[in-house]
């Protein structure tokens, strides 16, 4: 992508004013985005992102410069702009770059760049037909298709020189069911760190029917009651609750400055005994998986909470300096336009012992959430919220009427202590996570779990 | 390769491949951002980036492709991909390359004074603000983030029908979130300000705003969960409006994703509500004299005295309804697909101050912050159930902060339940939705409130 000698010159220029670490991140990314609406392809976009990010540290100061100008002059100018922020004399000589070959941990069998677009369109149309024909109340179906090939080169003054290719594919189906003035959406968006083989093997029947089934079910749902209830959260994308309630608070981004509610608590009991929480970027070909992170560190499996005890954080190089801890292979960024910081990959609650049937039959009165929407957290206070896409009332150990418009709110550290049952049906769901270093692909996951008390916000009684 | 050379080669190659009309859209951005933490520069970012997108008519259909690299490989990449992409487009109304509007209103969105402010002055401003933050109250323990960001954007549209539009603008913004501790309580308070006038950024005022906001969240109590009159403070009101502005897009009404389809000319809210879209707003983040298709922008009423006057259109949505484009064609960047979005859209303020409205409430809730808007609001049905922070009001006085809560309702119904509109227009810095959206404080007759 760029020659070793140019990169060596750029690193030297970046360190000219006294920096003690410099890094070059080169990105060349090809993307295809297609949208189908009402059975017709409405947009088809192809593009190429290309740019370079240069980062310099001096102690606890971090400087970042990025540019789309990949000429030697352009790069030296960007390196100079970065170096300008650091005051001093050249302190260190960078190590000689050593090319490191890391085998792809997530093999791709069919690169989407080599697949003709009509085959992609065909997948979208099949998904559309299935979703549209699910029920006569389905009035609109939107299918979005995404594939991308991101090529990166990461080099730094410690001698690192490594390249990686990340290929990802995702299909997102949104159905809207209509009855009179009422409109309800349903959504499913499976994705993987895979090529076009992912689309060819995708169970379209399942995903497209589910998107429509959710919309139709919610059309007939009652407004959700509000108040405090035991809440049963089903597996897969249900894991978004822990992503918000706990995952973000374990990122060095907020822990390093001791702003997180989880700072300085390693070894402490932060959750109930049944909770084991793991971030694992190595799971084969999952949406949030990586071979190396965006600082060139190999992905790994990080146990964050084990049987309720806090074991570790997600750490990037820069925040690791402030914390006096090593990187955990968690430095990620949306693109060259962002300096990397500690982020999640595939994060999940490990399997417990209860069966889903046991959990439901043991709940006298509560709320069961089958599919979650997104959420948000304030890592300083630990307060989080998330939206429920499909919920039901639980009465006398049985799942009852569907409920719409439920939002769950709570405080992360408190909720962790209130998880009283963990099921045995772990699964993962794909999502996009937005934070300091941009929007990145992550998986959230869990088996079915029960939280003994959560605050549910709804509209019932409002009329 | 420079831009002019790239354009000429590209259009030449396009013609050889059978493209009839072609357009090159160009953006160049220079940015500076700096974060300060306890007197030290915590992060410092500079950037210079550009990107171009090509679109062209191939066999009567529009194909798109973009690139950030102006080299020979990109020329063929753009043409081949745009050609392949064009073949799949099936929309019944086809886009066209636009020859240009009759006239373009002049706007001044570039401050030379701001361009002259040095990095040193910007960092000094942060240092001054930080001093005031820590001096203001001993309960201040730190900041979650504390950043200045400034930028200059140039954009151009050049096409084979002779259109050649260029524009540049700049801005500076301050974003701060202050953390306060009292006993074992930890709270934070945010404040942000966006402007083209560097001299209005007063360190003491910015510090006061953010610290007061954080302190006001301390000693939060629970409250009964029930329906209350709710005063959405200006920042919360604009965040909610931002989430629901897609309902005013003709693209969404045409797709059945907004309930305002066919409502043009009808009353959709209380008569006291008016909403305008103003591309020439002096301090507007999205001010511009032409939209992403090159159509001249105009200031216009969206809602006037409760009646829906016009939806927002681009050329394609306008053609479908046999009306004119309103100059609201939008691309999130040169990378994005062409869609519809507001420029600077806001609720027209009245003459009632925030304090006057608070004092009119016998029992109710003031909402100061909404969270999770990207997931808790259904822009299709209008239903929302959103996490919120705020205060309890009794007998016209703010009594105390309230624990985290949710407010739930329906946006279409809310438009008909506005009891008072404030004079305190403020714009929100939302990052999830498009458009620069503002509102004064809005008093809503009732919303379902659930307190943790």
From TrEMBL, chain A:
Upper taxonomic lineage: Bacteria, Bacillati, Bacillota, Bacilli, Bacillales
Signal peptide from the UniProt entry: none
Designated name of the protein: TldD protein
Domain Metalloprotease TldD/E N-terminal: 22-85
Keyword Membrane part of the UniProt annotation: no
One cellular component (GO) term of this entry: cytosol
Location of the Metalloprotease TldD/E central domain: 112-219
Sorted UniProt keywords: Hydrolase, Metalloprotease, Protease
GO terms classed as biological process: proteolysis
InterPro entries: Metalloprtase-TldD/E_C, Metalloprtase-TldD/E_cen_dom, Metalloprtase-TldD/E_N, Peptidase_U62_metallo, TldD, TldD/PmbA_N, TldD/PmbA_sf
Domain of life of the organism encoding this protein: Bacteria
GO MF terms, alphabetically ordered: metallopeptidase activity
Domain Metalloprotease TldD/E C-terminal: from-to ranges: 226-458
PANTHER family cross-referenced by the UniProt entry: METALLOPROTEASE TLDD (PTHR30624:SF4), UNCHARACTERIZED PROTEIN TLDD AND PMBA (PTHR30624)
Family indicated by similarity: Belongs to the peptidase U62 family.
UniProtKB/TrEMBL annotation, chain B:
Gene Ontology BP terms: proteolysis
A Gene Ontology term for the protein's cellular component: cytosol
An example Gene Ontology molecular-function term: metallopeptidase activity
Residue ranges occupied by any Metalloprotease TldD/E central domain in the UniProt entry: 114-218
Domain Metalloprotease TldD/E N-terminal: residue ranges: 23-86
Domain of life: Bacteria
Family assignment from sequence similarity: Belongs to the peptidase U62 family.
Protein name: PmbA protein
């Amino acid at each position: 992508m760029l020659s070793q000698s140019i990169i060596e010159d750029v690193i030297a220029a970046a360190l000219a004013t006294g920096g003690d670490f410099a890094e070059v991140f080169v990105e060349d990314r090809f993307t295809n985005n297609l949208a189908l609406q009402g059975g017709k392809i409405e947009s088809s976009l192809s593009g190429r992102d290309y740019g370079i990010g240069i980062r310099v540290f001096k102690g606890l100061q971090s400087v970042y410069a990025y540019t789309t100008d990949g000429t030697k002059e352009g790069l030296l100018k960007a390196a100079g702009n970065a170096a300008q922020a650091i005051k001093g004399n050249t302190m260190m000589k960078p190590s000689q770059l050593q090319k490191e070959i890391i085998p792809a941990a997530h093999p791709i069998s069919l690169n989407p760049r080599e697949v003709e677009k009509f085959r992609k369109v065909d997948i979208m149309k099949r998904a559309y037909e299935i979703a549209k024909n699910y029920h006569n109340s389905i009035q609109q179906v939107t299918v979005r298709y995404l594939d991308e090939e991101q090529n990166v080169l990461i080099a730094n003054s410690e001698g690192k020189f490594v390249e990686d290719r990340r290929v990802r594919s995702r299909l997102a189906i949104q159905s809207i069911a209509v009855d009179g003035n009422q409109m309800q959406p349903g959504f499913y968006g499976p994705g993987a760190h895979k090529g076009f083989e992912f689309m060819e093997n995708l169970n379209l029947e399942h995903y497209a029917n589910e998107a429509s089934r959710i919309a139709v079910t919610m059309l007939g749902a009652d407004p959700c009651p509000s108040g405090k209830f035991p809440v049963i959260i089903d597996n897969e994308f249900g894991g978004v609750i822990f992503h918000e309630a706990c995952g973000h608070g374990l990122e060095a981004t907020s822990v390093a400055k001791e702003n997180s509610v989880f700072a300085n608590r390693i070894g402490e009991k932060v959750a109930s005994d049944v909770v084991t929480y793991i971030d694992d970027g190595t799971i084969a070909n999952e949406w949030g998986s990586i071979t190396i992170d965006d600082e060139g560190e190999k992905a790994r499996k990080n146990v964050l909470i084990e049987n309720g005890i806090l074991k570790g954080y997600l750490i990037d190089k820069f925040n690791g300096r402030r914390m006096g801890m090593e990187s955990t292979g968690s430095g990620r960024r949306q693109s060259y336009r962002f300096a990397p910081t500690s982020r999640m990959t595939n994060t999940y609650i490990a399997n417990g012992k209860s069966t889903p049937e046991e959990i439901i039959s043991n709940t006298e009165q509560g709320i069961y959430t089958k599919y979650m929407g997104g959420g948000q957290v304030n890592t300083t206070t630990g307060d989080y919220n998330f939206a429920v896409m499909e919920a039901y009332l639980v009465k006398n150990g049985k799942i009852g009427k569907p409920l719409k418009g439920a939002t769950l709110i709570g405080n992360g550290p408190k909720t962790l202590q209130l998880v009283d049952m963990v099921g045995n049906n772990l699964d993962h769901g794909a999502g996009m996570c937005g934070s300091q270093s941009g929007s990145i692909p992550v998986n959230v996951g869990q088996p079915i779990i029960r939280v003994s008390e959560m605050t549910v916000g709804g509209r019932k009684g409002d009329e | 390769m420079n831009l002019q050379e790239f354009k000429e080669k590209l259009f030449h190659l396009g013609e050889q491949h059978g493209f009839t009309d072609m357009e090159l859209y160009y953006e160049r951005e220079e940015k500076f951002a700096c974060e300060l933490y306890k007197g030290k520069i915590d992060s410092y970012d500079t950037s210079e980036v550009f990107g171009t997108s090509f679109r062209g008519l191939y066999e009567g259909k529009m194909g798109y492709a973009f690139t950030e690299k102006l080299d020979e490989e990109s020329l063929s990449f753009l043409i081949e991909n745009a050609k392949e992409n064009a073949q799949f487009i099936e929309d019944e109304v086809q886009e066209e390359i636009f020859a240009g509007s009759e006239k373009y209103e002049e706007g001044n969105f570039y401050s030379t004074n701001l361009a002259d402010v040095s990095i040193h002055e910007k960092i000094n401003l942060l240092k001054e603000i930080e001093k005031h933050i820590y001096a203001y109250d001993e309960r201040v323990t730190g900041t979650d983030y504390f950043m200045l960001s400034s930028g200059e954007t140039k954009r151009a549209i050049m096409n084979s029908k002779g259109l050649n539009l260029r524009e540049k603008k700049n801005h500076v913004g301050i974003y701060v979130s202050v953390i306060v501790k009292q006993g074992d309580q930890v709270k934070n308070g945010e404040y942000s300000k966006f402007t083209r006038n560097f001299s209005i950024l007063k360190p003491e005022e910015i510090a006061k705003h953010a610290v007061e906001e954080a302190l006001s969240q301390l000693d939060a109590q629970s409250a009964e969960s029930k329906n209350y009159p709710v005063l959405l403070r200006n920042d919360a009101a604009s965040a909610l409006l931002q989430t629901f502005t897609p309902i005013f897009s003709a693209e969404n009404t045409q797709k059945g994703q907004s309930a305002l389809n066919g409502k043009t000319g009808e009353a959709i809210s209380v008569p006291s509500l008016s909403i305008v879209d103003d591309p020439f707003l002096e301090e507007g983040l999205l001010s511009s004299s032409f939209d992403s298709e090159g159509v001249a922008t105009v200031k216009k009423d969206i809602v006037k005295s409760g009646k829906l006057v016009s939806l927002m259109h681009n050329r394609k949505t306008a053609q479908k309804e046999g009306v004119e484009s309103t100059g609201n064609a939008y691309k999130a960047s040169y990378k994005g697909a062409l869609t519809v979005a507001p420029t600077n859209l806001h609720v027209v303020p009245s003459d009632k101050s925030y304090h006057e409205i608070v004092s009119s409430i016998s029992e109710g809730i003031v909402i100061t912050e909404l969270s999770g808007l990207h997931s808790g609001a259904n822009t299709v049905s209008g239903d929302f159930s959103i996490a919120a922070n705020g205060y309890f009001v009794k007998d016209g006085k703010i009594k105390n902060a309230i624990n985290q809560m949710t407010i739930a309702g329906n946006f279409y119904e809310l438009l008909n339940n506005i009891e008072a509109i404030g004079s305190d227009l403020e714009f929100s810095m939302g990052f999830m939705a498009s458009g620069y959206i503002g509102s004064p404080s809005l008093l809503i007759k009732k919303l379902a409130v659930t307190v943790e």
